[in-house]
Design brief:
six-stranded mixed β-sheet; 430 residues; alpha/beta; elongated
């Protein structure tokens, strides 16, 4: 597989230094991509870079995932309006291990293949570097004029940010440039990959390699992902979409991809899956013929949920999506885990009820019209029950005087009450 050609048709190349493609055609090449370790999980904003590394390894080359332990302690000024929080070493190490575990779903770290992926942390070579050594051995090779010409620096100094720019952040590109030089020396790394906002930092590295080591190194960046409506990719009302199920449940993760626009789905399926050009063209054709069926979104959500989580998590997410519509919803409700149930029912009104009363047995009419406000009155509930408009855990209730039992509790804690077709209420037994 030709790495550059693969990225081109997928729309994943923004800028590429001359000579990059020739280098890749000549020999197995080592490339690295930096990952910011400010959290113990990647989010979907990281996935473009991760997919670049994945395609790089599939093309027979060797990927390095660089955890920015040292640079994470400084904060990259690129496209940022203010400095970020700095991390301690224990947190960095914890985050590094968590990130490696996630990357292992995309990259082969464990085989004895010559192009097996490796993880490195720039803190390991920066922590012993004294300030005097750094400005003598690295700083003297790059002029201030050169550093000031970078867009990331110019924007911060032009008054767009009231705080200006600290020396710490100004020195960031030198630290990142030294990473490239160090990996060039230690790992024969000839290429750095990154987002388009990293171009200035990456080319400082290639310049440093040329001036200090007299070597040739290359740069390739991907475009920053945007949404068709101009909104920020990967952000929802509740924040980032994380890869770790503790922060974003597989159900919510699946729903994010399922609900992207047609235009975005056509773009994202090229970037975030390994599907071939022919398969994607076929899906685009199906979408044009029957947009209501949304084959692009369904396949995108399937591929990426399975890759990040598992096939079982994908199946569970599909099943959970059918809770409000399926005639087997009662069975599904009793099977799904608590996190998925709460994700499906996000935004539904909740009431706290007595667990003891539920287990001992309380008439539903008392529970729903007195203990909670699911129904405004008992008369209203009796009338709706006769019309078939009352359900508990998606099972119709015709007798409002039915008593509750422990069997009604989903995950030993919840009851889903339904009034009419569209009004849901979640009772939490405490």
């Amino acid at each position: 597989m030709n790495f550059v050609e693969e990225l081109k048709w997928r729309g994943m190349i923004h800028q590429m230094m001359p000579g990059t493609e020739e280098q890749l055609g000549k020999e197995m090449t080592v490339a690295y991509l930096g990952i910011d370790p400010t959290a113990d999980s990647l989010h979907i904003g990281h996935l473009v870079g991760v997919m670049m590394l994945k395609h790089f390894q599939r093309s027979g080359h060797k990927p390095l995932a660089l955890i920015g332990g040292a640079t994470g302690m400084i904060g990259d000024p690129s496209m940022k309006s203010q400095e970020r929080n700095l991390l301690d070493e224990a947190t960095l190490r914890h985050n590094q291990e968590a990130i490696k575990k996630q990357l292992s779903k995309f990259l082969d770290f464990d085989s004895d293949a010559p192009n097996a992926a490796e993880m490195v942390n720039n803190y390991d070579w920066m922590k012993e570097f004294s300030f005097l050594d750094f400005i003598r051995d690295v700083g003297k090779h790059i002029t201030v004029n050169y550093m000031m010409a970078k867009d990331s620096v110019k924007k911060r100094l032009s008054g767009e940010a009231r705080e200006g720019m600290s020396f710490t952040e100004f020195s960031y590109q030198l630290v990142q440039g030294y990473d490239f030089l160090n990996l060039y020396r230690e790992k024969n790394c000839r290429l750095q990959l990154g987002g388009s906002d990293q171009w200035g930092n990456i080319t400082t590295g290639t310049e440093l390699i040329r001036r200090v080591a007299g070597g040739e190194a290359y740069a390739l960046t991907c475009p920053l992902i945007t949404k068709a409506d101009g909104g920020k990719f990967g952000k929802t009302e509740s924040g980032n979409v994380w890869l770790d199920p503790r922060y974003t449940s597989p159900y919510k993760f699946y729903q994010f991809w399922l609900n992207v626009s047609d235009e975005d789905a056509e773009k994202y399926i090229k970037i975030f899956t390994e599907l071939s050009r022919e398969e994607i063209e076929d899906l685009v054709k199906q979408q044009a013929e029957n947009p209501g069926d949304r084959p692009l979104q369904k396949r995108l959500a399937k591929e990426i949920t399975t890759m990040v989580h598992s096939a079982a998590d994908y199946e569970a997410a599909v099943e959970a999506s059918q809770i409000l519509f399926s005639n087997k919803a009662g069975e599904i409700l009793h099977r799904i885990d608590e996190a998925t149930l709460l994700a499906v029912m996000e935004g539904v009104p909740t009431f706290e009820v007595s667990r003891e009363e539920i287990i001992q047995g309380i008439k539903l009419i008392d529970l729903l019209a007195e203990k909670t406000k699911v129904f405004p009155s008992k008369g209203e509930m009796r009338k709706m029950a006769q019309q078939g408009g009352v359900s508990i855990n998606k099972e119709k209730i015709t007798d409002p005087y039915t008593e509750t039992s422990a069997d009604m509790l989903l995950n030993d804690k919840y009851i889903l009450a339904q009034r009419g077709k569209k009004n849901y209420f979640l009772l939490i037994a405490k």
